[in-house]
Amino acid sequence: MATLPLLSASFNLTQEHIDFFQKNKYIKLKNVFDAATLNHFNAVISKKVDEMKQEDVPLEARSTYGKAFLQLFNLYLEDETIKSLVFSKRLAQIAAKLMQVESVRLYHDQALFKEAGGGITPWHADQYYWPLETDKTITAWIPLQATPLEMGPLEFSAGSHEIVEGRDLSISDESEAAIQKRLKVTDFKHIIEPFDVGEISFHSGWVFHRAGANTTDEMRKVMTIIYMDSNMRLKKPVNDGQLADWHKWCPGVEIGEIINSPINPVLY
């Protein structure tokens, strides 16, 4: 395996970065990785996604969710090279410092590949799906290539974690319409920007976000890693998504217990 020193090197996260995240519950950081590191993982993750994907339904015949992306989970269990990215101390340290916790553990990873011609990812908050007791969660969104607006980069409603309305909606046409309507009557800034090579975003579980359609003829390749406070406890699920996540991502953990299953290791 190639030597990739940036995986373990500390990132110069400033107090200004931390303050920005605490206010807005998202941040975009440039030059987290270099082009060589991203190209390496682009090749490995793309190969694994191609091996594992099962979607053979034409785009036009899929639901809005199905058109949004190909979604594959916990690739770190399938490939040692991918595991080196998911277990990166550099990324985990950023996650811990932004959340202002001492230590983080893995919730799960997922590849989100938006196909050429793929549709929007509707407005939503990730934590709708997660049976987690607190808001100490954060997702690293790692584009494996430069991602212009035409490719459908992640968009954020800065500070929208303060809104409770819409938290009970899964990713759907309904969430896109209802949350967009709610956000229009607020002062929260809508951030829609391209991502440079090596630029990575981090966002909280309750901040509202979306992504545009991929109008290019290339796949938009993104790897994500979801972290949680290492002391996170399992809460009683309140919807079918949380019930499914409990059994899939927190195996053997009982309600009220710290989520320390074998697939939720401490990463920093």
Automatic annotation (TrEMBL):
The record ties this protein, via SUPFAM superfamilies, to: Clavaminate synthase-like
Molecular function GO terms recorded: dioxygenase activity
Record protein name field = Phytanoyl-CoA dioxygenase family protein
The record's PANTHER family line, in alphabetical order, gives: ECTOINE DIOXYGENASE, PHYTANOYL-COA DIOXYGENASE DOMAIN CONTAINING 1
Q: Which cofactor does it need?
A: Fe(2+)
Q: Which UniProt keywords apply?
A: Dioxygenase, Oxidoreductase
